[in-house]
Amino acid sequence: MIRHALRMLAMMYCVCGQPAYSNYESQAVTPPLSFSQFCIQYPDDCQRHDDRRIRDFRSSIQRWRELAQINSTVNFGIAPKDPPASRRDAEWQIFPYEGNCGDYAVTKRHLLLRSGWPSSALLLAEVVIRATGEHHLVLLVREGRALLVLDNLSPVVTPLIDALDRFTIVRAESGTDPRRWTREVAAF
């Protein structure tokens, strides 16, 4: 009963939370239903977070190491599991024992937010894997002038330009508002 109510609230957010027409961002799209449900369960992870990293003491090499460590820790810390047909990707969770691509991506984003990274640099992105046509969720990270991909299907952090031969971006968080999704990832 509670799950049904949460799904209905999430659906209402998707339908009512997005304007029919927006001059502000012409490519705005409805976020995935799973994201809306995630925001109900983890509201703090869906709020705007400013940059709290100490810039003087953290070189770009240290930030790269942090990204690689979190990517690796989460990739090995969550056992891969195909969701049951009834669940599909509808319920993303932080730190599940076993999970799917959505669980990996939101856990990585959660850890980076807690490490002081700004929400504008951490963009969840729905992609289509070219080889299979399967929809998949990854975390895009803006670091300096680079846009990097943290993916549970890859043991290494990859520049987006190198990952685009494996997948196509369908929609992603906008960077200006964690609850707003767009068809394109904004350039710098």
From TrEMBL:
InterPro entries: Transglutaminase-like_Cys_pept. This is Transglutaminase. It comes from Bradyrhizobium forestalis. The lineage of its organism: Bacteria, Pseudomonadati, Pseudomonadota, Alphaproteobacteria, Hyphomicrobiales.
